[in-house]
Every structure is written in C-alpha cells, then in structure tokens.
Design brief:
Blueprint lengths: L3 H13 L2 H17 L3 H21 L15 E4 L12 H15 L1 H5 L8 E5 L6 H12 L3 E4 L1 H4 L6 H15 L3 E4 L3 H4 L9 H16 L5 E6 L7 H6 L2 E4 L5 H12 L9 H8 L4 H17 L7 H21 L1
Parallel strand pairs: 2-5, 2-6, 3-4, 4-5
Antiparallel strand pairs: 1-3
Helix pairs in contact: 1-2, 2-3, 4-6, 8-10, 12-13, 12-14, 13-15, 14-15
C-alpha cells in the first residue's frame, strides 16, 4: 500500500499536472508492492503507467490543420497509413527497419536499463530508392505523425534566422512525438571547409550538431541525402544508424514488379525479361512504369497488361532518365 508521503505526492502531482512525477511515484509504489510479494499488483501498476504514457503521446498529436505560426512555414504534417509490407527492400534494409521499429515499441523497457532506442537515422542513396517512403512507413507503423521539414522555409538569407527556426523544430520534437524528416539533408549538413562554403552555412551546421546532440525527445529524427560524400563527418557520430539504399538488383526488380502487377498479369508472363530491361532503374521509376501500363489497360478496357506494353514502358523510363541526365 502507498505510504502517506506517496499519497500526498500523487495528489500534488495530479493537481499540478506533473505527469512525469505522477508516473515516478506510481512506479515507486509498484516497487514497494513487489518487495512485499504483491507481484500481480506491481505488474498492473507498471502496465497502467505504460498505457498512460502511450495515451498521453496520442493526445499530444498535432492535428492536421497544424503546425501554426512560425512552425507552419517550416513543417508540413501528414498521417501515413503505409506499413513495412508496402516496401520491397533488401534483406539487410528490411532487418534494419524492423530493428528500429522493435526498439521504438520496446522503448520504455530499454530506457529502464539506461539505454536509448534507435531514433536518429540517416538514409543515404540515389533518388527514387525508397528514402522518403521509409519516413512514411516508420510513421505509419508507429501510428505517429510525419513532420516533413520544408527547406524553402527553413533556410533563409538572414544571418541567424535559420538556426532560430531549427530550434523551433527541436522544441517541437519534445512537445509532440512524431517522425521529423529532413529531406535533401546535404543542404544543411555539407562538410565544413568546402571550397564554396560560407560562414552562415557553417553556423547552421554547428547549430544542428549541437541541437541533435542535446535532443532527448521520444521523436524520430530522419535525415535523407543523395550525396553522403559531402556530409560533415561529425554528423554521422550524432546519429544512431545509417541506412544505405541502392538501385534494386534483378531479384528485387522481379519482386517489385510482381508486387505492383500481380493482379494484372496472365500466366506465362516473363518476369526475368522485364527485370533485365528494368536494370538500372530506381524503385520509383519502375513503379511509375507499372502505373503507366495499368492505366493504359484501364483506358483500353483490358483485363490484363501485355508483356510488350510493360517492356516498352520500362524502356521509356530509361529514355526519360537519359534525357534528364543530359539536362543536368
């Protein structure tokens, strides 16, 4: 049974709205009950505290019509409904993402032992390989909002303003649990000392390094870049994990094609031939090709797609890719 001092502390923490102190006293009561052999009651108290914390995180979720004020200029919010099953990944990447999700779901147990779950992640790899989709999947799997950082609103020409806006983002990670996604991260994380570097960029990077190191929130901070080679090395030491994305191999291409087209193909469809043609394309480019042939079949009132139409669509994606290269 709770002591008189603990009862007073519970009542005071409730009156003042100090949830963390309320949980701490409740866990003290649970520990006392466990020592007295009341294991069932102790377990029930710990379970209630865990459920209360989860409920609090859900209540703190910012609704879709927010963020407001200054945050509205630098954060856009969504609630993804996609999961890990919606991605076609290499076994290594799949295992890394599963590990992140497991650690997030077991966060309270990990923290009880003085450790921290993975939550600061860098995603590196070519465009269209699934980095943005990963941020959505993590948010969807954990049922928390995805906050995408808008670089056009974050980076300004006024000295010191970008660092101030960065601080707003890190304050938001403390107030509202979510996935905070910095796409094209090399815009603020490029290596200090590059030939075209200017003082303000160095100050932005230094501010980010300091803020991410001090961040102890429950949010996930995800940074994605197509150019890891220009990131400052000090950044990698501030993150918990690095996930590397690559163009899909033949097996990955076949799995992706089957996943996107399994309801639209007849028996005898040559997946090997399609995979050979698709080699060198990204996940996004292959997905776009499958969407084009499905639309063509719908427009022409066909129940299935033809192999030749798919091969032509994949070849067209290669042609578009080459044209875009010539423009860069």
């Amino acid at each position: 049974m709770a002591s008189a001092a603990q009862m007073k502390a519970l009542l005071n923490s409730h009156i003042t709205g100090d949830d963390e102190y309320f949980y701490a006293i409740t866990l003290q009561v649970a520990a006392t009950e466990a020592k007295q052999g009341h294991d069932k009651l102790a377990q029930e108290l710990v379970h209630l505290v865990d459920e209360a914390k989860k409920s609090r995180n859900r209540r703190q979720t910012i609704p879709l019509n927010r963020p407001q004020g200054d945050l509205a200029e630098i954060l856009s919010v969504s609630y993804p409904q996609v999961g890990l099953s919606n991605m076609v990944l290499s076994k290594q990447l799949e295992n890394q993402l599963k590990r992140i999700l497991i650690e997030q779901r077991k966060a309270s147990h990990i923290q009880e032992h003085g450790l921290s779950p993975r939550r600061k992640i860098i995603l590196v790899g070519p465009p269209g390989t699934g980095k943005t989709m990963t941020a959505s999947v993590l948010a969807g799997e954990l049922s928390i909002p995805l906050f995408q950082v808008r670089l056009d609103g974050l980076i300004t020409k006024f000295m010191g303003e970008t660092a101030t806006k960065l601080r707003l983002i890190f304050e938001a990670t403390e107030q509202t649990r979510g996935v905070y996604f910095f796409d094209e991260f090399d815009a603020i994380g490029s290596e200090r000392g590059l030939a075209n570097d200017v003082g303000e960029i160095r100050r932005i990077l230094n501010s980010f390094l300091q803020m991410i190191e001090q961040d102890n929130s429950d949010s996930l901070i995800i940074a994605a870049t197509n150019h890891p080679e220009i990131l400052d090395y000090a950044l990698f030491r501030r993150f918990d994990d690095v996930l590397k994305y690559e163009l899909p191999d033949a097996h990955g291409i076949k799995e992706l094609l089957k996943d996107r087209l399994c309801n639209y193909t007849d028996k005898g469809f040559s997946w090997d031939k399609a995979a050979e043609i698709a080699t060198g394309l990204s996940h996004a480019e292959i997905t776009r090709a499958t969407q084009e042939v499905i639309k063509d079949s719908l427009i022409n009132d066909q129940n299935s797609i033809t192999e030749i139409n798919l091969l032509n669509a994949l070849k067209e994606r290669h042609e578009i890719k080459e044209r875009l290269k010539s423009l860069s």
